[in-house]
Fold this sequence. Notes:
Layout: H1 5-22, H2 27-33, H3 38-46, H4 53-63, H5 67-80, H6 93-104, E1 107-112, H7 123-131, H8 138-156, E2 163-169, H9 170-174, H10 180-193, E3 198-203, E4 214-218, E5 227-232, E6 235-239, H11 242-258, E7 260-261, H12 262-266
Parallel strand pairs: 1-2, 2-3
Antiparallel strand pairs: 1-4, 3-7, 4-5, 5-6
Helix pairs in contact: 1-4, 1-5, 1-6, 2-3, 4-5
Amino acid sequence: MAQTPTLARRMLAQKLRRQRIAAGITQDQAAAEVDRDATTIGRWEQGHAGARRRDIQDLAKLYGTSAAETARMTALLLQAGERGIWEGANVPAHLRVFYESELLAETVRYLDLDYVPGLLQTPEYLAEAQSVRANADAERDVQVQRNYQQRQADVIHGERQPRLEFVIGLAALEYLRDTAVFEVQVAALREVNALAHVDIRVLTRLHAAMDGSFALIDPGDGLLEPFVFVEALDGCRYIETRDVVSQYRAAFQAARSSAKPLEEYLK
């Protein structure tokens, strides 16, 4: 898990929470045993603060964790302290889990109603979208362009190549139908869609996911639990509750089944 410290911290947090619950121990009880307060235990379990190696060992002993699992948790703790691939790239901390998860995921499903998803945007499309944003920031926009190009190189064309499923709203393309940007963007979509691990579809009518855009990540390989990422003007949120994630999954699958394959839409 080189260069994914934020993801390592989140994985460690999930392990700590699962093991405490499996042991039938409350946060207050755990805090008392390791001479911490319950708030600190909660922050460790949310990935909002880092524990020390001794803390992890003490909790593992309290929870009855195996030696092998304790070693994995210790390794995650060390990885969480490394410099990440997105550090120094002006990527907000709240986006790093999502970006790092893309690199290691088994499957990522994107539903975007008004934008071409970032992984698929050409520089021309991104520049056009940035030009109409409120509170424009030229320096920030240049960094965003670099970050998008890096994500495309690593996720779409990298060695791992997770399964990528995109469902795009009709508006995302039709907004620029009569511009030169449209032709360039469509050509790029066709090129990516031709890859064996990518599927792009377009929504052309009412569908099951009209409440908003989101991304659904299936990390696989015993990493994080599947989660939903929802971005907004004032930040983003991660949805991890299994029942709620299942609802998003069902909405995506229903929308995808009613969407047209890219080439069919473009005929």
